[in-house]
Amino acid sequence: MLIESLTHPAPEALLAFLRAHLHARVTLHLAGEVEVLYAGRATSMAEAGDRLLLVKPDGSLQVHGPRGVKPVNWQPRTDHLSADLDGGCVVLHAERRSPAEVVRVRVIGCAQVTALNLADEALFLLQGSEAQMQQALARAPHLIEDGLTVLDRELLVGVGGIDLYARDSQGCFVVVELKRGKAGHDAVHQLGRYVDAVRAQVSAPVRGILAAPDITVPALKVAQAAGLEYVKVDALPQVQEEARQPMLF
Amino acid sequence: MLIESLTHPAPEALLAFLRAHLHARVTLHLAGEVEVLYAGRATSMAEAGDRLLLVKPDGSLQVHGPRGVKPVNWQPRTDHLSADLDGGCVVLHAERRSPAEVVRVRVIGCAQVTALNLADEALFLLQGSEAQMQQALARAPHLIEDGLTVLDRELLVGVGGIDLYARDSQGCFVVVELKRGKAGHDAVHQLGRYVDAVRAQVSAPVRGILAAPDITVPALKVAQAAGLEYVKVDALPQVQEEARQPMLF
DNA sequence: AGGTTGATCTCGACT
DNA sequence: AGTCGAGGTCAACCT
């Protein structure tokens, strides 16, 4: 996994190291004093400072400072990566088109640089996504309201899709918007848009339900004012009742 | 800057290393085979695989795989960090309250671990934020429309704030919503909300203008259908004309 | 390639 | 502490 590592390399040694590994499906880690320029959707410059640089085999690049999960500068995926000598310093260029962006990293001093092989064989499982919540509630719509019948999932209406489209025991159409976390007023507005879109196409009464484990106070007020309903549902609804359901027929 | 680095340390040596540096205002970098559990707002597990681990002095932790800017697992800022031996493996615990979350990293094999001092003395400048755009357009509202007079910035109306509140040459009130990038339909709806809120309080006619460097086709259609206007403005409006303005008085 | 949505979003600012 | 909105959001999915 550890391919090669240098400590305090001279610029020429660093350049050779980078050129040997940059395009070799390798993950690079560099710690050192660095100066970063970015130009693209916005423009930024960072004066020289101690930073941690990460370059992954997909060409993505990130420059980390001493705080936070977010890099100080980054490039999601580069179409072109190169290393050159400029004024006695190694300079990394990371460019991409669409959007047209470039990050230039000038390495003033390198304390350590490492080439690694990060093979990605590992299984990854995430529980609690909105997609899982949607699946669970589509199977057990009574967790939202008794007598609800799900007609569709991800129904496209105008722009965007309705998480759950259903009919209640009274025959009303019901638009359900799901949020896996606490719902804010943006979720209420999103629901309002979908309800409006359905009302424009259907003559029968249409209800809007925001289903989430929690809701902010302002969002609840906005919902009530707009005639939309909020229903508290668990983020990980346990749908094990069906296993207990006796076979009736 | 480079404090200490070990290659292929045994678990006991790694544990000593981590305990010596974890709470020493130091940035840690670890490359190795690792297994990660996360529980909090969601739940995830990653089987053993080659990963790159980063721990910063603020307690933030991230586990990187071979692709993308985003870590596979992370923890934004921990209240509690600890390292222990469990079944012959070093295990890192990173916990925080609010939200209650925990990340557990089991180090199965460590190829390299490094302690770094990332002093943050570096100046960072970002140009092209929406705040800068707002300031520039407030000073030069003619870039949006001739004869516009800005009355207010970030005017609070109901929930949320109006980026720019103005009056046009005809005496109409104008609500301006700014976007630094391409505007989507969410921006149009946001503008619509604000316009509605102002109309409810003012008897004079109210216009809504979406000012952005670009707009998606669907968003433009929605805007036109709702009687809202789109004005193309540069993301970095150069307001140097005022320097050329002759002193009239 | 363009558009939309979700995210363990992160992060800062403000109440 | 809670809420809100921006972000160079990123990244996945769909048309």
From TrEMBL, chains A, B:
Q: Which family does it belong to?
A: Belongs to the NucS endonuclease family.
Endonuclease NucS N-terminal PH-like domain sequence ranges: 33-120
**Protein name (record):** Endonuclease NucS
Q: Which GO terms describe its molecular function?
A: DNA binding; single-stranded DNA endodeoxyribonuclease activity
Q: Indicate where this protein resides in the cell.
A: Cytoplasm
- For the keyword Nuclease, the answer is yes
Q: Which organism is it from?
A: Deinococcus grandis
Enzyme kind, highest EC tier: hydrolase
Ordered alphabetically, the record's keywords are: Cytoplasm, DNA-binding, Endonuclease, Hydrolase, Nuclease
